[in-house]
Design goal:
The chain is α/β, with parallel strands linked by helices and about 250 residues long. Helix content is about 35%, strand content about 15%. It is built from seven helices and six strands. The longest helix is centred in the C-terminal third of the chain and has 22 residues. It is globular and about 45 Å long. Bound molecules: zinc ion.
Length: about 250
């Protein structure tokens, strides 16, 4: 089913929908939640010369990713988490040397990994948008590395929160074997494809503050659920085959 065009993380791809006025699952600002004191890396995909996917109206994935990542960071900080963002501006993390070696994309990913490894972390969330030549695809989807059961569990709690909070068309979690960052982060790590910017209606939603808040709040909710669950049960290792995304 993944005939999707990559949003551009090497091999990554990914895939949103309607918001209803349902009550949200948890309330903000509760210092007695599972996020309090946790260190979470929030990674806004792409940036700078790397626009990521581009919508028909000229909107860029990199800008939507950053807007949603910033909202997520705010929610997490209000819950008492320590948040590290890989970028807070319209830049990538490649160096001039990477540019000279025509190695810019890999240099960017390596730069993000260096940010992650500067401290001990409790979770990693990368924000991306999906794209496809067909404008009919829509729906958010959360990816995890196939051999990271903690990532799988976090992907499932975030996906559940997307659905609970009224995002329609949410896709099932997707195992992946190739995503550079997810492969190298053993902690609970996910890549969230917040929706398709090639779907006109979904793009419109993704451009609104309300929908961006809903996505951010759902990821936040998923993280809380993950840490609440992680405190009292074990996760079985996954041994199944993974789908290659893209
Ligand atoms: Zn992307």
């Amino acid at each position: 089913m993944f005939g999707l065009v990559s949003c551009a993380l090497v091999v990554a791809q990914s895939a949103c929908h309607v918001v209803s006025a349902q009550p949200l699952a948890v309330s903000k600002g509760n210092n007695w939640n599972g996020l309090f004191g946790k260190t979470i890396v929030v990674d806004a995909g792409h940036g700078g010369k790397d626009t990521g996917a581009r919508a028909s109206d000229g909107s860029t994935e990199k800008s939507l990713n950053l807007a949603i990542a910033k909202r997520l960071a705010t929610d997490l900080r209000e819950a008492g988490a320590f948040v590290v963002m890989t970028r807070t501006e319209d830049v990538d993390l490649a160096s001039d040397a990477d540019e000279r070696r025509r190695h810019r994309h890999m240099g960017d990913l390596q730069g993000r990994l260096r940010v992650v490894r500067k401290q001990s972390i409790d979770g990693f969330v990368s924000i991306h948008c999906n794209a496809d030549p067909s404008p009919t695809w829509y729906g958010a989807q959360v990816l995890y590395f196939s051999r990271n059961p903690k990532g799988k569990e976090l992907a499932e709690t975030v996906t559940e929160a997307f659905r609970t909070n009224g995002m329609h068309g949410v896709r099932s979690v997707q195992s992946n074997q190739t995503l550079y960052l997810l492969k190298r982060i053993p902690e609970p790590a996910v890549l969230v494809e917040v929706g398709f910017i090639t779907h006109p209606t979904e793009l419109h939603r993704l451009q609104t503050a309300r929908y961006q808040e809903l996505i951010a709040f759902s990821v936040y909710t998923g993280l809380i659920r993950y840490f609440e669950g992680a405190s009292h049960h074990e996760v079985a290792p996954e041994n199944g085959s993974a789908h290659r995304v893209g």
